[in-house]
Amino acid sequence: MTIHKLFAQRAFLPGGWAEAVLFDVDGAGNIVGVTANAAPGDAERAKGPVLPGMPNLHSHAFQRAMAGLAEHAAPGIERGGGRRDDSFWTWREVMYRFVATLTPDQVEAIAAQLYVEMLESGYTAVGEFHYLHHAPDGQPYADVAEMSRRTIAAAQATGIGISQLPVLYGYGGFGAQKAGEGQRRFLNDPSRLLRIVETLKASHKADPQVRVGVAPHSLRAVTPETLDEVVTGLTALDATAPLHIHIAEQVKEVDDCVAWCGRRPVEQLFEIQAPDARWCLVHATHMTDAETSALAASGAVAGLCPTTEANLGDGLFPAEQYLDAGGRWGIGSDSHISVSPIEDLRLFEYGQRLATRRRNVLAGEGDAASVGHRLYQQALAGGAQALGRPIGALEVGRRADLVVLDPDHPAVATLPPERLLDAVVFAGNRNPVRDVMVGGRWVVTEGRHRDAEAVQAAYTTAVSQLLA
Ligand code: NGQ
Ligand code: ZN
User: Fold this and answer.
1) What is the per-residue pLDDT across 265-279, written as a single tens digit (0 to 9) for each?
2) In sequence order, which residues have a C-beta less than 8 Å from that of residue 196 and are 6 or more positions away?
3) Is 143 annotated in the active site?
4) Could you tell me which CATH class the domain 3-52+395-453 is placed in?
5) Residue 83 above 70 pLDDT?
6) Topology of 54-387 in CATH?
């Protein structure tokens, strides 16, 4: 098997920054050798410091095309009663109207544009929390997995790794409330959802760039019985496949959950399931101390989406307590109001500073006393776990997913390695990502994705049709 050799003068390995690192990558895109203090020999040379690519653990790809369409408070056809009534729930109404007519071709074009933007910003894998399954009238397409195939096709065309998470969505609210009109394209029972999972798994079983899991949408959209059925069904197909769920994002959601079952959402999930390392609890914004400790102890990942959570007015995740308790977490760009690991990591810390009036709230010990270092490192580990793929670290056995920082970026050019991630996270306003490799292949060079222009042209056509 041919081995590609890549030499980096400086690279961020699991133990921290290392010098003169030689990577061996096999033809399948796996790292098969990592040697520090090595001679470059005839290896290809990375043009700047090398970081592991960041996993983006939570995406609703189609929402990329509505970024900016829900940021005005004027009352009118799109909105409720103006700014005092604007909330997550009115945003959701805008989203339902946006989703009503989307075609498979449009979804694929939007996803491709999004994935190009992710790659150019340093994300090398995505968790696609996919609930737009059916035709506008709610009827399944001839291939029930049609829409999922489109996001996977966009991932394959652009080169990003994907964990496709077909969503189980059955109801409109706690206690098996009937789903609304705006939700009809999302609906499946557990057996049809598992058929989607099975057919996708069969189509992609040999592809190391694709993993398939399941996402029960939220405790609002499933019952304890349908949740159990889909978890059991997935486990039978793949005992380690990822399981993602939205949870406790909004105060109203917590209140409605308590009114329905007497327990808060995170409490209720732990009552009816046993979340472990396979699980990713997306948002988990509103937790009591006991819930925070239970989640941290479970080994599950908290899927944090700071820019979307800010945009939707969700609230602040109890980050300091959760990290102190050893909780695992990663980041996602969710609604894609921003597509930048830098911006999401920065806002994660800044939310805590604003709330506590302190600085370096999420710093750890040793190398991790650097907030940038600790956040980047933990988001890599949690993201990799949540996506269920061997990614997130530059070590033997993982995928060769890496980012080369621009050596001419002022911060990259001047700062010592132990401050580099702080500069990137807190002052990387001009994108410092130069080149990006996924599964051993370069997909971004000199800041630009190989197909950026064609993908954007198709995106522009798709969105102009949609908004016409
Ligand atoms: C979603 N998004 O499924 O796209 C949700 C909104 C809901 C976020 N929670 C819809 N950020 O939760 O019902
Ligand atoms: Zn979401």
Assistant:
1) 999 999 999 999 999
2) 133, 144, 145, 148, 166, 188
3) no
4) mainly beta
5) no
6) TIM Barrel (3.20.20)
Q: Which residues of the chain are in CATH 2.30.40.10 domains?
A: 3-52+395-453
In the predicted model, what is the mean pLDDT of the chain? 96
Instruction: Determine the residue of 58, 60, 254 to mutate for testing ligand 1's pocket, defined as the one with the most ligand atoms within 8 A of the Cβ atom.
Output: 60
pLDDT digit string (tens) for 132-181? Answer: 999 999 999 999 999 999 999 999 999 999 999 999 999 999 999 999 99
Q: What is the pTM of this model?
A: 0.98
> Which is catalytic among the residues 133, 244, 283, 336?
283
**Considering every ligand atom, which ligand is closest to the CA of 282?**
2
Q: Is 249 in the pocket of ligand 1 (CB under 6 A)?
A: yes
Residue showing tokens 């049709």: 465
Q: Could you say which of 256, 334, 401, 435 is catalytic?
A: 334
* Known active-site residue 86: no
Q: Which residues, 6+ apart, have CB-to-CB distance to 121 below 8 Å?
A: 339, 340, 341, 342, 431, 433
Within the chain, all domains assigned CATH 3.20.20.140 are found at 54-387
Residue from 335, 350, 319 nearest 69 by CA: 335
Question: Which atom of ligand 1 lies at the shortest distance from residue 167's CA?
Answer: 3
